[in-house]
Every structure is written in C-alpha cells, then in structure tokens.
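Async update (no meeting this week)

Hi team, since we skipped the sync, here's where things stand on the single-chain job. The sequence we agreed to prioritize is pasted below, unchanged from the tracker. I ran it this morning and attached the output directly underneath so nobody has to dig for it. Comments welcome in thread, and please keep replies under the output.
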Amino acid sequence: MLGETDSVEEKIYKQKKKEENETEDEDSEDGCDEEGIGWNILPLQSHLKENEKKYCINEFPVFTQEEKRLLASVAGFFQKKEGNAGKKDLKNFFKKYCTQNLILLERKQAEYLLCALESNLFGFGPFDFFLKDEEIEEIAVVGTGKSKPLYVFHAMHGWMESNIFFSDEQTVTDIVNKMARPVGRRLSMNSPVLNATLPDGNRLSASINPVSFSGPSITIRKFRQEPFTPVQLLENETFSHELMAFLWIAMQCDCSILIAGNTGSGKTSSLNALLSFVPKDERIVVVEETPEIKVQHKHFVKLNVVKEQSIGMQNLIVESLRMRPDRIIVGEVRSKEEVSAFIDTLLAGQGKGSYATFHGQSVRESINRMRSLGVLEIDLAAIDLVIVQRRWNVMGNSINQKGNMEVRHVVEVAELGEKNEQIECNTLFKFDYDKGKLVKTGKSAKVFEKARQGFAFGRKGFEKEIKRRAGILAGMQCSKITMKEFFENVNKI
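Output:
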C-alpha cells in the first residue's frame, strides 16, 4: 500500500492508521530493540515530497515497546509449550495468556497483534505481506535500523521504500533460514551466502557479514504463478506480432535459441512463453540450478543442480543424453561450466532444439562473453537464434508523461552462422529507438532453411505463413487468456 501527497491511484493505498497508534518508538537511534520481535513499522511521514510514493503495510500500526515485549513473550512461551500447534491453537493460547497475565487489549489491537504472531510463527514475518502482492516483482533488505527500510520493486512504480524495517540481524538470519529450510540450506558465519528457491517458486538470495559489510542483505525475486502468454507479451509490446509469428515457426521447426538480456529484462518470462509453441506431445527435459522454467507439457522431466552433493550442470547434461528428450532447456547459463553444458547439448544434437537464457545486452556482446567463457568460435554457430531483450528507463517530461517509466522490449534478433571458421550474424529484427518499436532489418536464411525442410515452404510461402500466424495472434490477443488456454488453442491450429 502506498502513500502519496496529492492523489490516490488505483491499487495504491494510503497507510490506514489512527493517530493514537502512531506513537514514537522507544528504540535507540539505530533502530535496534533491546527486546522485541526484530521488526517494526515506520510512522508515515506527514509530508512526503512531491511525487514521492511509499509502499505501506497497513495491517499494523507502529508497535509500542509494550506490544513488542508482549509479542516476543507470547511467541517464546507458545513455541516452548505448544511445539506442533497450529494457528487456531495460537489464537486460544494468546487469549489465555492475556487473561492469565491481566492484559487488556482492544479488539483491533488484539487482531493486529495476533496477525503479527501468526506471520512470525507460521510464515516469514513481514515478508508475508509483500509476497502476496502480485504487483511486486522484487523484495530487498539492505540492512537494519530505521534508516534502512525494506525496499520493493513495484511493477507500475519501480523501486520504493516500504514502512517496514528490521531492527536486528539475527531476525533477518532466522527468517532466511526458515525460508531455506525445505531445501536444506542455512545462512551462518561459516556459510554467509545463500541461494535458494522458496516453496512458492520465488528465488531467494541472501548474505550476511563478512560478505555483506553494510548489514544483512536479502533479495527475493518473485515469479508470476501464472506465466505470461505470448499474447500478453504482445500486449506489453515486448515483442512485435511479426517477430512472435516468426518465432512460432522457429520453435516448431526445431531451432535452438538463446535469449540474452540484462537483469530483470524478462528473459525467463519470454522463454516460458515461447515454449508454449512446442507441440504438446513432445518430451521436455529441463536442467536448471534454480527452478524457474514452467512448461505446459505433461511429458517433462526437471533436473536440478545440487551443489552440496557435487551434482553440477555438466553432470545433468550427461544424464539427459540417456533420456531421449525432444527438447532440452538448460535454464540460465552464467558460469563457464553452464555455458559449456549448453553448447554441449547443441553439439551433441540432442532432441529437436535446445534453449537457455544468458546475460548480455546485444548479440555481439553475448558472443564475446561466450568466447571469454571458453566457447570455440566455430561452436557458436550451433546456436540458431539469439534474442536480446532489454530493460531500461524512459525519462518522462511534461508533454508526454509524468515521471520515469521502465520498459522491456526485444531489441535485437539475429541468426548465427559460420563462414571460414568465423562466426557471422544475420540481424533480422532491431529496435528503432526513434520510432519506439521493433523493425525488420533482414531476411532469414537459417530458420527459413529449416522451415523449408519441415513445412515445404518456398520463400513466398514462408513470408505468407508469418503473416497468417501474426493475424491469428492478433485475433487471440486478450490479457485474460491463461497459459493453459493459449497452449491448447495453439495445439489445435
């Protein structure tokens, strides 16, 4: 929920607190509690700067020192006496505790205190309230104390401060370890860096001192429970209709694709969307370090890297050779080992196509980075297509828009080929920044040749089919269509 100075937009909420509950906290200057639950609410500023927005959790007021002591005491006794009890037991225990200790609470006060207890004991503390908001893409902790509130990246408004702050490092560490418990990982002085996938599929990255010198650091990358469909990416103008239709054919005629881009540009979302064009009866094998790929196919196998047991990407690629896949998805490749594993899948001729995502802001930069990671020049030609997707800020002005806006677009698409043992790039699409759209810049040779073999297309037939499919996609364009519905519709065409 967000606070603004002059207006309230849709899906933006002001912090709802009564004046009597906005009491000043009795913490020390750095925000540390002598005793309490380890996090608290910052009071809403009476005068925010012009156009400033703050993401506010309105379930709670600022906790008084007495309330924090009560929460800590109830939580401690409950865990000691009611080991495996549930939320219903907690409610009864809380009521009984207050009665026995002659503690009188107002109804609303009892409700928000019980809510805080439930989050601390059965959830992930204040993170629960950010994780349930689908508009939030990223959650970040940058330290402890009032001067370092938790930050969120909102899909519409970008990075914003929240009204939550952590008052001690131990609370942050405890919550991280609770999140990572299902995968058997733990943050500690001996292991000050942790990466894990949460039960809901979101990605967790955390570090503490001595690695994170400025205080505990947490970043949670949230993934949509329902993947973006190709038509939603068209509505978002990430892809053009012509390019999406072209890629539909490329996916069906067994082309291998690398999707490159900067952090947060939507590489994985685009890959998930393109995989919906793979025929439903094919066998998919997914190899990943962090589970992010979502396929609609019933016949699929997911293999995950387990570093603790020395099972790396290369081991899983070798294992997949025995699994007769139709398609291999390597997920995100970053290290020398992972890039080598992806190239190995291409050179081994596994299945009908291999796919991965990679960090690089242009086709040429992606090629150079792969060279630096040990890929031979001649081997790069095994990649049929490189799609580059970028995220950047468009600066607002008084004429067109207020404030800055973040956009995501495909900015380059190229085929890779080899001539005289040198890699060649055939650029097919490029983003025109003056026109603000993706434009076609060249004719396909590699994808066309595979389409000619698979569909018996001539050049005119190939271009005609792209136009036909672009029309189909335009007719299906509806933001409410689910991935399952889109997948079923495509497989009927």
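Quick observations from my side:
The two ends are 43 Å apart (CA to CA).
The first strand starts at residue 2 and ends at 3.
Reply here if anything looks off.
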